[in-house]
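Action item from last meeting closed. Structure (161 res):
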């Protein structure tokens, strides 16, 4: 009997370090890392100018990403998804992805104070100037209004970082 891969995904406010953590875990576990930012930039170059644009294009790629990830998981490949799981709805999507193929999962919750997130966003603006229009304190506060801390009753395997 063939073993399934494990899905690893992340919850944390903007600037909490989800991308950095995803790269470390993928390297340490020799897993395939799939980055939403990279997929969006490749498929919709220069089209994401607002949070609403992000929501629109993120929604468009999800069906393809889901089938791709499930294909990898069913052949035993561990997958690290650098996609936000910051709301109950987003985490529900990850849960369905796992339950449909009956694979294991881990949700890494990066519980980082707002002040630290804002400092890291400031650094990212300097290191990645192409993101400067999106990586602002104003966008952070707007996005943080939507953030929902994961709870045990969601039925997820939560790893607090």
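Sequence:
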């Amino acid at each position: 009997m063939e073993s399934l891969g494990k899905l690893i995904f992340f919850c944390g406010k903007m600037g909490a370090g989800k991308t950095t953590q995803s790269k470390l875990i993928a390297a340490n576990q020799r897993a395939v890392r799939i980055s939403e930012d990279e997929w969006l930039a490749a498929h919709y170059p220069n089209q994401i100018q607002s949070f609403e644009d992000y929501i629109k294009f993120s929604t468009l790629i999800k069906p393809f990403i889901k089938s791709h990830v499930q294909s990898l998981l069913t052949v035993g490949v561990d997958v690290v998804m650098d996609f936000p799981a910051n709301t109950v709805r987003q985490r529900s999507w990850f849960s369905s992805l796992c339950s449909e193929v009956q694979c294991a999962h881990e949700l890494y919750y990066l519980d980082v104070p707002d002040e630290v997130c804002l400092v890291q966003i400031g650094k990212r603006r300097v290191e990645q100037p192409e993101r400067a229009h999106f990586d602002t304190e104003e966008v952070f506060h707007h996005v943080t209004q939507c953030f929902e801390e994961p709870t045990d009753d969601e039925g997820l395997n939560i790893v607090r970082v």
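Note appended to the action item: The two ends are 34 Å apart (CA to CA).
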